[in-house]
Amino acid sequence: MAEFTEIWSYLAGNPLIWLSATLIAYVIGDWAAAKMQRASWVNPVLIAVTLLGALLWATDTSYDIYFEGAQFVHFLLGPATVALAIPLWHQRHAVRRALLPVLAALLAGSVTAVLSALAIGHALGLSPQLLATLAPKSTTAPVALGISQSLGGSPTLTAVLVIVTGIIGALVVTPLMNLLRIRDWRARGFATGVAAHGIGTARALQVHPQAGAFAGIGMALNALLTALLAPWALGLFL
Amino acid sequence: MIHALTLILICQLAGETLTRLMGWAVPGPVLGMALLFALMLASPRLATLIIPIGEGILRHLSLLFVPAGVGVVGHIQLLGAQGVAIMAALVLSTILALAVGAGVFVAVARLTGGREDG
Predict the structure, then answer these.
(1) Residue A62 region by backbone torsions, left for phi larger than 0, else alpha for psi between -120 and 50, else beta
(2) Same domain, A88 and A153
(3) Average pLDDT score over residue span A194-205
(4) How far apart are CA A159 and CA A142, in angstroms?
(5) I need a surface site. Which of A3, A233, B24, B35 has the fewest CB within 10 A?
(6) How near does any CA of chain A get to the CA of B107, in Å?
(7) What is the ipTM for the molecules in this complex?
(8) What distance in Å separates the CA atoms of residue A30 and residue A22, rounded to the nearest whole number?
(9) Which of A22-31, A69-78, B70-79 has the lowest mean pLDDT?
(10) Which domain holds residue B1?
(11) Do A220 and B64 make contact, defined as CB atoms within 8 angstroms?
């Protein structure tokens, strides 16, 4: 019989193990979320990320090795974004009726996301480079990296802030909206897509189909608007 | 199944190509979403073809963010001494953006008489 260390050294360099680990960690996170009736504070992404982070640390595995397996999951983000056309199509009549609220909420949510982050960061003494890194944090990752780079920020750190923002949004949206007594699924979903991009949209899709559709639109429109707004907003704080 | 998947990938590919060709700030997949939406509007037959596969991918959209999220764990020290200020900005700004966005949506929907049912 082969030694365990031999098997491990074979598996550790194989994409299969980290692809499996990613799915297993997510299944555990999703199971826990389902067990807690999808309470917002039990976020499957956060649970899976914590488990995997601990596992990589315990096995002394680098992110590059991990990503060789995980890339197959990561790749599906693109096709999944394309597939957001489906909830949008189901809700096309509701969206057409809500055109004015959508445009108003887009402008208000997007401006608030950028300006409030910059104002708070500025008040707490962040450097201009960190402000540029922070400005696009509510935008979907590929656009956020481009904006950060063009403003003189750090794209790597922006990627981190985008993911953290998405998780914060997914965690707080349900209790916040209940507290504000906002029951309109269109409003809840749309604001989530604008403030917390794809991770917020994933949460919205799990809660209500109409919220999910409006979140997808919010994410797409906010990517466009933030690209236009961010340079102007940053200029106010430099 | 393979037709639906092919169509989704073609939409993404067309989006990626177009946005690079034109030098736009829009991500390719977002443009692909708009393209697929237009195709679904144009052809109901195509819409019924795409729905089962597309909804299958979307059912676990959260899963797809896990690999990027694991990357955050390794980069968290990049926040450095400014970590607390950055986290404060992220948390407060996200709460504000959610509240303002949803509040304005509801207010304008009420003003323009939009109904809530879909």
Answers:
(1) beta
(2) yes
(3) 95
(4) 9
(5) A3
(6) 8
(7) 0.91
(8) 12
(9) B70-79
(10) 1-66
(11) no
